[in-house]
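Why run this: before we spend reagent on co-expression, it is cheaper to look at a predicted model of the complex and decide which construct boundaries make sense. The entries below are exactly what would go into the expression plan.
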Amino acid sequence: MKTYKIDERSRKYRFGAPIETESLVINSMQKMTDNTLKYFKLNRKKNQLQFIYKMSKSDIVLGLGENQRGMNKRGGLYESFCSDDPVHTPDKKSLYGAHNFFILDGAEKFGIFVDYPSKVIFDIGFSQADELNITIEDENLDLYIIEGEGPKEIVEAFLVLLGDSYVPPKWAFGYQQSRWSYPDSKEIERIADSFLQNKIPCDAIYLDIDYMEAYKDFTIDEKRFPEFKEFVEKIKNKGFRLIPIIDAGVKIEDDYIIYEEGKKNDFFCVDEDDTPFVAAVWPGKVHFPDFLNPEARRWFGLKYKLLIDNGIEGFWNDMNEPAIFYTEDSLKKAISMAKDSEDKNLDINSYFNLKDQFSNLINNVEDYKRFYHKIDGKKISHYDVHNLYGHNMTRSAAEGFKEIDPNKRFLLFSRASYIGMGRYGGIWTGDNHSWWQHILLNIKMMPALNMCGFLYIGADTGGFSGDANSQLLIRWSQFSIFTPLFRNHSALGTRSQEPYAFDDESTNIMKKVIELRYSLIPYIYSEYMKAAIKKILYFMPLSFEYKDEMSKRVEDQLLVGDSLMITPIYEENAIGRYVWLPEDMLLCKIKSHQDTRCHVYKKGHAYIDVELEETPMFIRKDKMMILGKPAQNVEKINLDELKIIAFIEDGGSYTYFDDDGSTHSYKDGNYSEILIEIKKKAEEYIVDVENKGNYMVKKIHFEIIDIEGNVIEKTVNLTK
Amino acid sequence: MKTYKIDERSRKYRFGAPIETESLVINSMQKMTDNTLKYFKLNRKKNQLQFIYKMSKSDIVLGLGENQRGMNKRGGLYESFCSDDPVHTPDKKSLYGAHNFFILDGAEKFGIFVDYPSKVIFDIGFSQADELNITIEDENLDLYIIEGEGPKEIVEAFLVLLGDSYVPPKWAFGYQQSRWSYPDSKEIERIADSFLQNKIPCDAIYLDIDYMEAYKDFTIDEKRFPEFKEFVEKIKNKGFRLIPIIDAGVKIEDDYIIYEEGKKNDFFCVDEDDTPFVAAVWPGKVHFPDFLNPEARRWFGLKYKLLIDNGIEGFWNDMNEPAIFYTEDSLKKAISMAKDSEDKNLDINSYFNLKDQFSNLINNVEDYKRFYHKIDGKKISHYDVHNLYGHNMTRSAAEGFKEIDPNKRFLLFSRASYIGMGRYGGIWTGDNHSWWQHILLNIKMMPALNMCGFLYIGADTGGFSGDANSQLLIRWSQFSIFTPLFRNHSALGTRSQEPYAFDDESTNIMKKVIELRYSLIPYIYSEYMKAAIKKILYFMPLSFEYKDEMSKRVEDQLLVGDSLMITPIYEENAIGRYVWLPEDMLLCKIKSHQDTRCHVYKKGHAYIDVELEETPMFIRKDKMMILGKPAQNVEKINLDELKIIAFIEDGGSYTYFDDDGSTHSYKDGNYSEILIEIKKKAEEYIVDVENKGNYMVKKIHFEIIDIEGNVIEKTVNLTK
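The model came back. Tokens follow.
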């Protein structure tokens, strides 16, 4: 083991000679002479490393990104191995992402990142209530330990190592409508027009797999989408972007240009005999581009230009764990077993064997051991670098965009991911269900994903599989208005769940909820951008700001940005919920951006009534929330006048960020800020507004609410 | 439609000429001239009846027995169709039971029982938020509408129609240990000895399918259980009953007596050609006894004697939906499709077709349309009476017991059920998972099952499928100590979850939790017996006793018997929970029967701290809880001295019931009661104890706690 000091907070421990994942961005580090591994007992066996930590009763464990169970991960067994598993029941050990960072907050406080691209097992008090156990079947590994005064400081130190976060265009903070599938241009147009007719804001409509010709990447089915470029333009003129899906597998088909180029240049993953590996996914038989090979990655990334040239400005990368429906070998084996069973009087075990042979065809781990990548000329088993695949597909796209249109921000997010992919794109949390429990899972995942460096995140609102009812969609949306990615997506064969798909009353509520999202964009965008630039969190567990024991235990409330604590409703038929207030706060129940009712709540436990049409949010003490006016889409938002609701005991400040929303110029300091300060002097509130370059906002209306609930209104005109 | 008046509260509406389910016990009723159907709008189509009710905003819907979602069933779509589905995700529309009774509590108040033995669809605000819609694909139906002042009165009126409840022997209120499987006598003995060594109380150990010879009903595998009768005796001498499983399907095997007799007497369900229908389940190919044919039912029921003669006193009836792993036809079709697919370049739809052909073999609804019953000489499609199958298997056993040993109480419960089966046995809630969410589901189901006439109920504590951790087992057990059936059961291949299977600390906690169950048996048994005799509920939602709006909304607290409100912990790592107190109550946090800490809580919302080793329970105002002392098993409980904790403002009374615990003599009035009354007079508490025939209890220690938390202790010696 070698130990390196990265900075005051972070150390790297290298075991053996691991594969470079390039997950972190570390410019320099110093080799240390002190080689003691802190916190963990190391168990070294042949082909195995095991790290053991004895937990105290009060320890909580936060992080691990996209995973099941609580915000506090204690009690669970997790296997970090990107998996296309569409049934997210509470016992699933792996979902689509591999997010090997967590913090322990308790008797000791530290963060750990297990930088290992194949399976990692985290047993966090599952086998033994007080034992945390990390196991890999390898002797080569990079391990990072990050220290800090508290969980927030630890995560912020980790985020520094992750480099600059991906930032989408501003329109990607608008509401987005998806379904598998809106299968042709006629249907897409019908959807766009429905939003316009219902006056429900929306910025993007998605193209799921059926827009392609026979599921071939970078093709358009011309029957269903004739004159695609003109159609993209037409829909854009109506105010909507079209977001096509890109799958990992490339269809094997003669004369299909992507296939031919990939084959010619050896850009595909190969099998043991060095011939391109064949798997079956949506297009039937496919090859997988070797995204770990820089040349192949560049080649694939530049292919996005085929769609960009049609006016496309955003993409979602899917099936990139990679998902495998079957391989020829495994299907052959299953079929031959079926043949052998013919006319036999099967005993029940033989029957289940046969049945399992078919049901285990899909995403069979053994298939991941049958193909290979080329890394620096070396042939590496896919299994050994499995968790880097989706990560590098998304990197491929992001690097492609940089070459295609260097200063333009594209929308990009992925299903599979590894830590570090947050530099290249966002993620959505995959194929969830229309289950109330999945709203809560969504809530719990968000801060964990932020901790792992993913800022642009969201779940399929309303649920992908299964049938939503109107109440579920409304309550879920009332949470999703706070997630950077706010997309409604649902599966083939399920009930329609567009915001207007239910009864009139529900449509009306959904319209107001989505409008509220647009009113909140000044706040959400400002907080997102500050998080990206300053490398801080957008979503936080309460314990990151409040040090009481209760705040460590709350699993269903989140801090959003600098000012808000949210307490979503995630239970069917609920007429309210319990809330922990770690300090006095101002509850605003919002029926529409024009109907905000605010009440002061004292520190402690409370039950709050929340009607179906109300979105509850708490403004923290000495903090403020910014509201704009909704519009049909983000570009149409009029920022002339903003409203600030402030909950002030002593005084507070807020920095409102904005920029062009479409380029990377903010990285060069090309952005505007409005610095707002409210001070209490005697019984007076003094409002100070300093405008640093914002040419949009002309006026800010203040509604200052003091600890007694008194409301003071002020209006400030902005000067440039 | 014909309308009948059953009594002041209940009416029957007959549509067409439905199959008699014999679910209710109605001695007489009067035909009415007024034929208006109350509450519902009737939509009559060819082969379809649809009943529609417009719900008010404040309406809640309770009941439907074994089903997913909330205690309040609004928002859900339910299909009443007994289903062996082992993955109880929130979207499952059918579980094992068909429990077509619910009450609407809101603007109007009524109960409805849809007495129909095939599929019934309940759309309770799923399609339309304010519409309740009941649909059957038939024109023949019995419908019952029950009225009353409130939900409790409605349910009690319904329970009267259900007849006398099943009552198990008293030892069946002890803790019971199960696993699929303890496969041989050696393992069973090891389990028994482990309980004795750890001094953990236990009354029964289960025999899952592996005790049989080749899964043949009423056989014993003599290799694994040599000298079975002696072994049963030996284990009974150690203090444990053995409870074998009985499956619905009878193995097709020459010279197997059950098969031969069934075939000879035409006791099996037949296919279209009148030959016994073949399906495959655990034993491989089986025939299904036609439990709807009274002769076949009697024949099968008397077969239990084969095991009873070996000393067996309890059974669980399983696989009686009936579960079907496959039928020959469907398997042949799947295999032939596989053959046809060989060496073809399958497109992705053909591949999924092939795969689905195999995955849909199990419990395929089409198979239920392929076989027939004989009812009154008529051949009836199984599909049309599907929901009566498990019901009548259990009736078969119960009627058998009555003939075999008329006055003896046997333990009997079933997986599949229909309303009315509560006369013959209990139910367990089937193959759940080791998911925290399934503790909550368990909590929500219990009162709904009670409403449908099932009193002896419980879930697989710790979860059947999946792996439990120690905390889950502890928290689940802290709830299960209140369920009449308290059984720990887990599946093949899962982690062991006996109470001593984890670390020492967990073993110690589990020992105290199970001991607490035994301390509570005086209360639990007393309340169970009173519920059975008086036809009242054992578990109730809060709204049955409290009329405030909050009590209608609480989904995770239950009233248990006359005195208790329970508030289980069902979230991982929780250190407490929120509680709604509809009136002042006394919280007792119990670490062991000797360590009960009680505090008065005022009406309103509260957050209560609950350590892992604490079981919380509230004693309602002017009510009392009885505690005895634990023992290794129920028969060893010493009832000499009881302790009563009473929470008294003005005064309260309690009737303590007991009987021989083993016979049906209680029906003839052969039971004892102790009538306890506590009256407050000035600052004094007067305790009145009247003993009506109890020869066990010598002394009762009273701990009377007043509204201020003052404790008054008294001891009363009992006279006969």
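Chain A has 14 helices and 43 strands. Chain A has a mean pLDDT of 97. Bring this page to Monday's planning discussion.
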